[in-house]
Amino acid sequence: MRLVLLGAPGAGKGTQAKILSEKFNVPHISTGDIFRSNIKNGTELGVLAKQYIDKGGLVPDELTVKIVKSRLAEPDCSEGFVLDGFPRTIPQAEQLDAVLTEMGIALDKVVDIHVDDDKIIKRLADRRVCPGCGASYHLEYNPPSEGDICKVCGTKVIQRPDDSPETIKHRLQVYQSQTKPLIQYYNAQGKLVTAYGQEEIEDTTSEVMKALGVKK
Ligand code: AMP
Predict the structure, then answer these.
(1) Closest approach atom of ligand 1 to CA 53
(2) 130 neighbors 212 (Cβ within 8 angstroms)
(3) Bridge-partner residues for 127, per DSSP?
(4) pTM of the predicted model, to two decimals?
């Protein structure tokens, strides 16, 4: 299964991508996670990416595509993958198509997870993440343990710096102008399916599976 998950920041792409990756036994590839791990490790890529991420902008296409291209060439991607947060622009999507064609493969489906704007803002503001293992929480619907402790690894959870109110606003503008056009792009390819992601995590998973035509 070769999938792309589309959706606004906070739509639940990461959570659903993780579930899909386990279900189909294929790697979950999140460009955001790759950048964050490079930032944490102080690599050259991390230093560069941080300048864009902290402002809520996008890391340049050339760099992002290069990273995804080399990740897709790794052996664990041979049976499929779930791309989360990539592509985010039309040029990225075009270059992804070119890379996959070169590899003799193609995407199976692109799932757009739709969540209304007002809900997105609240979700991002209430999102907490574990800097230790990357687990994601929501203060109301999926809270960490008491004292803001990660249930998986026991690290104190934090708010992502790019989930601050000013940065959220900018990220949503970037989504509207640069990423939303991908819905039309993949619709024209006949690959787009839509899942409503308004409610609980399990409801969204059911929607995603239904959209993909597979049993949960
Ligand atoms: P995410 O974890 O997917 O919300 O990504 C966090 C941030 O990483 C984004 O706001 C961007 O600054 C950057 N980023 C992630 N994926 C991409 C991409 N495909 N293209 C450009 N920038 C990206």
Answers:
(1) 12
(2) no
(3) 138
(4) 0.92
DSSP output for 28-93: EEEHHHHHHHHHHTT-HHHHHHHHHHTTT-PPPHHHHHHHHHHHHTSGGGTT-EEEES---SHHHH
Residue nearest atom 8 in ligand 1 by C-alpha distance: 32
Q: Which atom of ligand 1 is nearest to the CA of 84?
A: 3
Reported as a single tens digit per residue, the pLDDT across 122-149 is: 889 999 999 999 899 999 889 999 999 9
Question: What would the pLDDT profile of 83-107 be if each residue is shown by its tens digit?
Answer: 999 999 999 999 999 999 999 999 9
Read off the tokens for 148: 């803001």
With the most atoms of ligand 1 within 8 angstroms of its CB, the residue from 6, 28, 29, 35 to mutate is: 35
Q: Active-site residues: which are they?
A: 13, 88, 127, 160, 171
CA angle, residues 175, 50, 97, in degrees to nearest 5: 50
Please tell me if the CB atom of residue 171 comes closer than 6 angstroms to any atom of ligand 1: yes
Ligand 1: centre distance to CA 85 (Å):
6
Task: Assess whether pLDDT exceeds 90 at residue 197.
Answer: yes
Q: Is 192 helix (H, G, I), strand (E, B) or coil?
A: strand
> Is residue 124 classed as helix, strand or coil in its secondary structure?
helix
Query: Is residue 215 over pLDDT 80?
Result: no
Q: How far apart are CA 1 and CA 136, in angstroms?
A: 24
